[in-house]
Amino acid sequence: MSEKVLMKGNEAIAEAAILAGCRHYFGYPITPQTEIAAYMAKRMPKIGGTFLQAESEIAAINMVYGVASAGKRVMTSSSSPGISLKGEGISYLAGTDLPAVIVNAQRGGPGLGGIQPSQSDYFQATRGGGHGDYHIIVLAPSSVQEMAQLTIKAFELADEYLMPAMILADGTTGQMMEPVSFDFEIKEPPAKPWATTGTKGERRHNIANSLYLDPEKLERINNERFARYEIIKEKEQLAEEYLTEDAEIVVTGFGIAARIARNAVDEARAQGIKAGLIRPITLWPFPDKVYKKALKTAKRFISVELSMGQMIEDVKLATECKVPVSLCYRVGGMIPTPAQVLEAIKQAAKEVK
Amino acid sequence: MTRKYLFAGFGGQGLLFSGKVLAYKGLIEDKNVSWLPSYGPEMRGGTASCGVTISDGPIGAPIVLEPDVLVAMNLPSLDKYEEKVVPGGYIFVDSSLIERKVKRSDVKVFYVPATKLAGENGSSALANMILVGKLLKELGDYNADSVDKALGKCISARHADMLELNRRMMEIGRDF
Fold this sequence. Notes:
The complex is a heterodimer.
Chain A lengths: L4 E4 H11 L4 E4 L6 H10 L6 E4 L3 H13 L4 E5 L1 H16 L4 E7 L15 H5 L10 E3 L4 H18 L2 E7 H5 L1 E4 L34 H21 L3 E4 L6 E4 L2 H16 L4 E6 L1 E3 L3 H7 L5 E6 L5 H8 L6 E5 L8 H15 L1
Parallel strand pairs in A: 2-3, 2-4, 4-5, 5-7, 6-7, 10-11, 10-13, 13-14
Antiparallel strand pairs in A: 1-8, 6-12, 9-11
Helix pairs in contact in A: 1-2, 1-6, 3-4, 9-12, 10-11
Chain B lengths: L1 E9 L4 H14 L3 E6 L3 H5 L1 E9 L13 E4 L2 H7 L8 E5 L13 E5 L1 H7 L6 H12 L5 H11 L5 H16 L1
Parallel strand pairs in B: 1-4, 4-5, 5-6
Antiparallel strand pairs in B: 1-3, 2-3
Helix pairs in contact in B: 1-6, 4-5, 5-7
C-alpha cells in the first residue's frame, strides 16, 4: 500500500495499527472516532484478528489489559468522556508496566460536552489521567499521514518502555481526509519474556499485577519507573520547528491548532513580523529542549489551543517563564481561525517593540 | 496556488462525495489536498457541508472558512455562505433548488439547474456531479484523464455502471 490513498485520519490510525501487528482491538462507539472501530470490525476478521465491541469503555480497556499481559499488540480508542471511563484501566496498565495503545479523538467537554473537536484533555493525557504517580507517552498528530506514522511509533515506544502510549487526536484530524502512504518499515516487536502465556511446565509463572501491599516495594517500583521516565524525557522528545531560527514571536500549538497557527505565522512573516512556530509532536515527554533553544531570540510565546489554557503551563515550565507566554484559544468545539492567531501575533509584536 | 472549495446543501445530495472526487483529482495531479466534512448535529439534522483544499504547497488549516469556490445546493447554504466567498471567487448555484439570485457583484456566479438536468439524464441524485463538471470547466481545470481516474478511486469496480453515469453527469455539467 505504498501508493498514496485518500483516507480519514481515524481510518489511517486503524490501518497503521494493523500494519504494526496489532491483531486485537476492543472499543465502544463514540463520536468522533467511531470510524476506527468500524474499520477494525471490517478488517480484523479477515486477517485472523479480534474485533470486539465491548459492553462499555471500562470493559474494553480491561480487555486491553488482558491482551497486553499476554504480550500481544493491542489497541482501544474512544473520545473524551470514554477516555475518562478508561482512566482506571490505564492506571492499571501503567502500574503493571504493560504496553498498549490508546487513541483519544478529543471532543468538547467537560461532561458529555459536545461532539466537535477539542484539545481539552491535554492535562488528562500528559499527567497520566488516572490515579497514582505515572505517565503515558502522548503523541499528537497534525495530519493524516502523521496519524498513521505516529500510531506505529506508539506501538514501538510502548513496547520499548513497557507503558501505555496515547494518540491524542481530535475531531478534525480524525474526520478529515488527506493523502496517506503506508510505506513504513515495521520493526519486529521485541521479545516479551514477561508475558503471561503459560509456563508449559518449563519456567516459573509470570505475574501481571499492579498490587503491592508492601510500601517499601511499592516505593521502589515507583522510583524505578520514574527513572525510566527520565530516560524517555532525554531520548524521545519530538517537535517540529518552523521559522524559529530568528523568531521573536514564537507561536506554539499541537495537532490541528498547529496547522492553523502555521497559516498565521506565514501571514505574519509576509507582514514583516519575525514569527515562528513550535509544534510539539510528543506531548509527554514535552519537548522542552526546542523551547529553551527558541529563547535565544524569542521575546514572547503564544500558546494556541482548543482549550482554556492547558499546554501553556508546560510552555511556561519549559521556558522557566523567562519571557511572557500568552494564550490564544477557542473552546467547546469551536476552532481558532488563522486570522485570530494573526491578530494575537500582531498584538504581541506591538507589545515587545 | 491554494484553492479552497466548499460544498454545501442537504444530507443525501452527495456533497461529501463530490468533494472526495475533487480531492482525489487533486491527489492524482500531484497536489496537496485536504477534505473535511461536517460531522456534527447539522449532518444529522439535514444540512451537510464539506470543505476541500487543493494546493501546490503544504496545507495549513484544513478548515474552509472563506472559500474561493462555493457550491450551494440549497437556500440555507447560499444564505449562510454567500458572504464568506472571497472577492473574485466563484459561486455555483443549483438553480432548480434555489430560486433567488446571488446578491454579491464581486464574485463570478453560475446558475445551473443541476437537479433538473440530472433527473432528465437518469438520476436526480447526481446533480452534485453536474455541478462538479461545471465548476472544473469554469475554473479551466477539467482534465478528462484525471477526472476518470478520480472517479475510479471513489467508485468501486463493482459499480461500473455508476462510474459511467457519474462521468456522464460531469460531462453534462462541463458542456452546460
